[in-house]
Amino acid sequence: MGQDDERPDDAGSDPRLKALGEKLADARRDQRQPEGGASQSSGLTGIGQAMKVGSEFVAGVIVGFVIGYTIDRLFGTGPWGMIVFLLLGFAAGTLNVMRATGVAKDPFAAKAGKSPRRAPDGED
What we know:
Layout: H1 15-32, H2 46-75, H3 80-101, H4 107-111
């Protein structure tokens, strides 16, 4: 009667549909099973992930403070070395938190051929 009558009865007879179905199945399989069979959060629970993120931030700030304080003591530059390196430590800690949570990409993972870490909820 119309153009609808021209469609094949068997949807699998079109090779393009079959290829599309295979690609969709592969994508769904990859989504369910991350590389290496590990969970997306690297086996860390919510509390473990929070401890890791918090310790990475605090470590960046402490390292910046220690470097700045040491430079001030060695060269007698007053509080300027400590202020500068404390701010740099804060920035480094923030960047580490963003990388750990999947907000920012890890530049070294791309060079090594690894895929960047994804957010635990699967959003990009």
